[in-house]
Specification:
10 helices, EC 2.5.1.61, globular, 5-stranded mixed beta sheet, single chain, hydroxymethylbilane synthase activity, alpha/beta
C-alpha cells in the first residue's frame, strides 16, 4: 500500500488538523504523511473579506487534482457549498462547534466592563455581540490563534471571540473564559467540522477515508450548509446554523440571520431525518421572515 500524502496549509492549526487525520489513517493501517501546500492566502496577508476564503481551499483542491497529494483536509466551513463532483468527501469526528470568549482576568461576556474592546472580524460574531452587548467596542481581529489571543494578554484588547474547536485542536482550550451555548450565540455552519476528501476515482483512498466518517456529523453538517446554500450566502455573511442528531437519527437544526448592527435577527428551527430537506425547510422559513434585509 502506498503512503497517502495529505495536503494541508502550513499553519499550526491546519497542520494540527491534518495531523489528526494522518494519525487516524495510520491507526487504520494506512501509511500517511503531510504534504504542505502553499496557497495565495499564505502570501497575500490581506483580510479574508478581500482575498476570499476560497483561495485556501481552491489551492489545496488543485494540488489534489494535479496528483500532488492523495487526501485534502479543510476546515469544512471554508468550502464552497456547491458539490464538487471530482472529489469524494467525508466528515471525521467533529469538534465542539461552540464559540469561545477569551477575556482578561477570566471575565465572561456579562462581566466585561462597559465599552470593553472585543476583537473579531466575522460579521456573524459582530452582529451577535452587538445584540448581546451593544455597549462594546468591536475591533478588527486577524492572524493565527496565538496572535489573536496575544492581543488580550498584551492589554490591547479586553477580549476576543474564537471558535473553540480550533483552540481545542492546538491544545489551548483551557484559555477560554466562557463557552457560549450554540443556541444563544450561534456558530458558523459546519464550525468544528473537518472535510476530508480524495479524488472520486481513487478507490483505495476512498476506502481509507470512509473508515474515518461519522454519519451523524455528516448529517448535521449537511443540514447546516444546506441553509447557507439555499440563502445563497457566503461564509462571511451574518448567517449561523447549528444542528444536533439524536440516537434515532433525528436532526434538530436551528439557524439565524443577523443585522450587523445588532438591531434584529431572523431565526428558525425544525427537526427531521433528511438533512437536506431539513436545511431547505429552515431556509424557507428564514426567507419568509424576510431575512434578506440582514444580508
Amino acid at each position: 500500500m502506498r503512503t497517502l500524502r495529505i495536503g494541508t496549509r502550513g499553519s499550526v492549526l491546519a497542520t494540527t488538523q491534518a495531523g489528526h487525520v494522518r494519525d487516524a489513517l495510520i491507526g487504520g493501517g494506512n501509511p500517511a504523511e503531510l504534504t504542505i501546500v502553499t496557497t495565495p492566502g499564505d502570501i497575500n496577508h490581506s483580510p479574508v473579506e478581500r482575498i476570499g476564503v476560497g483561495v485556501f481551499t481552491t489551492a489545496i483542491r488543485e494540488a489534489l487534482f494535479r496528483g500532488e497529494c492523495d487526501v485534502a483536509v479543510h476546515s469544512h466551513k471554508d468550502l464552497p457549498t456547491a458539490h464538487e463532483p471530482r472529489t469524494h468527501l467525508i466528515v471525521p469526528p467533529r469538534e465542539d462547534n461552540r464559540e469561545a470568549l477569551i477575556a482578561r482576568d477570566g471575565l465572561t461576556l456579562a462581566e466585561l466592563p462597559e465599552g470593553a474592546r472585543v476583537g473579531t472580524s466575522a460579521p456573524r460574531r459582530i452582529a451577535q455581540l452587538r445584540a448581546l452587548r451593544p455597549d462594546l467596542e468591536i475591533l478588527p481581529l486577524r492572524g493565527n490563534i496565538d496572535s489573536r489571543m496575544g492581543r488580550v494578554t498584551s492589554g490591547e484588547l479586553d477580549a476576543v471571540v474564537l471558535a473553540f474547536a480550533g483552540m481545542s485542536r492546538v491544545g489551548l482550550g483551557a484559555r477560554a473564559t466562557e463557552l457560549f451555548d450554540a443556541d444563544v450565540f450561534m456558530p458558523a455552519p459546519a464550525q468544528g467540522a473537518l472535510a476530508v476528501e480524495c479524488r472520486a476515482d481513487d478507490e483505495q483512498v476512498r476506502e481509507a477515508i470512509d473508515a474515518l466518517a461519522v454519519a451523524s456529523d455528516i448529517a448535521c453538517v449537511q443540514a447546516e450548509r444546506t441553509v447557507l446554500a439555499e440563502l445563497e450566502a457566503g461564509c462571511t455573511a451574518p448567517v449561523a446554523a447549528t444542528a444536533t442528531c439524536d440516537a434515532s437519527g433525528v436532526i434538530t437544526l436551528r439557524a439565524g440571520v443577523f443585522a450587523l448592527d445588532g438591531s434584529g435577527r431572523a431565526t428558525a428551527s425544525a427537526s427531521g431525518t433528511d438533512p437536506q430537506a431539513l436545511g431547505r425547510d429552515v431556509a424557507r422559513t428564514l426567507i419568509d421572515d424576510d431575512c434578506a434585509r440582514y444580508l
